[in-house]
Amino acid sequence: MLEAGNQVKAQAEADGVEFVFAMFVDMHGKPCAKLVPVEALDVLFGGGSGFAGFAAGPMGQTPADPDLIAVPDASSYTVAPWQPGLAVVQCDIHVEGEPWPYSPRVILKRMLERVEERGLVFNVGCEAEYFLVRRTESGGIAVADELDRFEAPCYDAKGLSRMYDHLTTISRYLNQLGWENYANDHEDANGQFEQNFKFAEALTSADRMIFFRYMVHMVAHRAGLAATFMPKPFANLTGNGLHFHSSLWDAKTGAELFADEDDPRGLGLSEMGYYFVGGLIEHSSALTAVTCPTVNSYKRMGVGAPTSGATWAPAYATYGGNNRTQMLRVPDGGRVENRACDGAANPYLALAVQLAAGLDGVDRKIDPGEPNMDNLYELSVEEVNGRGIKTLPPTLLHAVDALVKDDVLRDGLGRTRQGDYIDYYAKVKRAEFQAWHSDVTPWEVDRYLTLF
C-alpha cells in the first residue's frame, strides 16, 4: 500500500495535483469522499480514511458501529479535468481490517474473482443518458435549453449546437483521461444527451461510470444548470437508460468468447454468448430490482410511447439482434447490450448481479431460444401471453419480491455479518417503495377529491 501511495504521490505531483478525493459509493451509488492533501497521501495509503458509516448512507451500519475505512485503489487514480489541482481515487471499504461486505465495490470485486478463476475477463461498455435541466421559479424543473421543443428532437443538430460548450467540454475531458470518447448525441427526449467512451474491464468501467456522472454534474453546475440521470424526470418524455454492453474474453489469449462469425442464428454470437443471454433472461425479474433500483425506474419501463417518440425501454424479458425494443440487444457479434438498466443503477451492484446471472446461464447451458425480431411495442397482451414471453416487473416492489427468491443472485451479492446482502438490500428498497406509496400526490387529489 505504501509503495502504491508513493507512486500516486509522484504522479499527483507531476500532474500538479494538490488534493485527492478518497471516494466510495453507498448502495444508491451516491459518491462520498474526503478531501486529502497530497502531503497526507502516505496516511491515506498507510491506513485508509475513516468515515462514520451510518451517516454515509445504507452501508450496513448503526451509529454504534466502528468506522468505515476507505482503502484507496491506486489504479483508479483519475485527475479531475475541470478542477485544477484535484484527483480522485476510488476506495474499497474495510471495517476492522476486513473487506466490508456491504461495500458495492467490494461486492463486484468478489464476483470478478470468480471470473478470474475461470481464466476470463469481463469487459463492459456503458451508455449513460442524462438530462440538462434548470430549476423553475415554482421549484420544479424544466429542460435547460428553452428552444429544445421539437416533438422528435433526437440527433437534432441545432440542439447539439446550443449545448455545444457543455458537450465538447465533457468530450475533451474524456479524451484527456484516455477514455476515448467516440460519440456525443442529442437523445430521444428534449434536453437529453448521451456521451460514449470505450469499453474496459468491468471494475474499471464501473469506476469510470461513477466518475463520469460526478463530472457531468459538476460541469453542469458551473454553467448554472443541473444534470440528472434520474430514470424518468419528465412524465411526457423518454427516460434515462444506462445500457451495459457485456462480453467475456480469454485472459491468456485475448480472444472474444462471445463472437462467432458462423453463428447459425445470424447474430454473430457464440454458444457461450447465447448461454449468457439465457442466464440474463432466466433471472430478469430479479435483476431489475438492482439494474432499475428506484420507484421512479418503473415509470420509464413499458410500451407506452412518450410524446417525444418511443419509450426505448424494455417491457419484456427477450433478446434479439439490432432491435431496441428487446431487453437484450445484440448490435453486432461479440457483445450483448442490456437495456433493462437505468440511470439510477449503482454500476458495481448492477454488474455484479448481471455477471452472476450470465455465468449461471453459461454453467447451466441455458438456451434462450430463437431471437425475437418483432417490434415488441406493437404486440398485444394476448400475443405476448400466447408466446409465453415474460413481462418485466411493473414496480420496484414486484422486482424486489423476485430478487429475494433468486438464489443465484443471493449468492452473487454475498453474505454480511447479519445475513445475506440481498435481504439488507430488499429491506432498504421496500422501505423506499413504502415511503413513495404512502405519499398522497397531486394526481390522486385531482382524480379522486370530488369523484365520489
Question: How does the overall form come out from the CA principal axes?
Answer: globular
- Characterize the biggest β-sheet: 10 strands, mixed
CATH fold type of the largest domain? Creatine Kinase, Chain A, domain 2
Identify the CATH class of the largest domain: Alpha Beta
Report strand %.
15-25%
The assigned structural class equals alpha+beta
Number of helices: 15
- Low-pLDDT segments, ≥5 res: none
What is the number of domains?
2
- The H-level CATH homologous superfamily of the largest domain, spelled out, is Glutamine synthetase/guanido kinase, catalytic domain
End-to-end separation: 68 Å
Secondary structure: elements and pairs:
Blueprint: H1 2-14, E1 19-25, E2 31-37, H2 41-47, E3 49-51, H3 53-56, E4 68-72, E5 78-79, E6 86-95, E7 98-99, H4 104-117, E8 120-135, E9 141-143, H5 157-162, H6 164-176, E10 181-186, E11 192-197, E12 200-201, H7 202-222, E13 226-228, E14 242-250, H8 271-282, H9 284-291, E15 319-320, E16 328-329, E17 336-338, H10 347-364, H11 381-386, H12 396-403, H13 407-413, E18 415-416, E19 419-420, H14 421-437, H15 442-448
Parallel strand pairs: 1-6, 15-16
Antiparallel strand pairs: 1-2, 3-4, 4-6, 5-6, 6-7, 8-9, 8-11, 8-12, 8-13, 8-14, 10-11, 14-17, 16-17, 18-19
